[in-house]
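Holo prediction. Input below; ligand is magnesium ion.
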Amino acid sequence: MSRTFSILKPDATRRNLTGKINAVIEEAGLRIVAQKRVKLSTAQAEAFYGVHKERPFFGELVGQMTAEPVVVQVLEADDAVPKYREVMGATNPEQAAEGTIRKLFALSIGENSVHGSDSDENAAIEIAQFFTDAEIVG
Ligand code: RTP
Ligand code: MG
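Structure of the complex:
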């Protein structure tokens, strides 16, 4: 078993889609072992997406991620990181495969409904930014 970190982004919470997205996650065999709704501060969003700080879309990304609440989650499965990336679909929903969360729900490359960690190392870092060990019940 391994873990990944997930965010249901503001475009998803705004449209009341968290239950529908969780259904896709669970049907794919990922278990939601921690979950909470939070409003990210600008500092939290800038730290979280720090690797993108030189990119032209960074300001827009931080603005979108802090505009409304998000749901942060820890997901558990065998090979959780690549499994969830597959369930999420491509960053740009126009390129996302049928049945993926982004194909089903995303509005645009910026408002693409979900985040998922891109490596086991980053998953551990991201989980620790939002959850204590006691809050994760596997
Ligand atoms: P994420 O980190 O959110 O799971 O998404 P990802 O790995 O599929 O994509 P990444 O390259 O890490 O980009 C992070 C997020 O930045 C926004 N983005 N906007 N306007 C643009 O061209 C653009 N490119 C990326 C997206 O919200 C993307 O998920
Ligand atoms: Mg990424």
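The pocket of magnesium ion (ligand 2) is lined by residues 118 (CB under 6 Å). That is the main takeaway for now.
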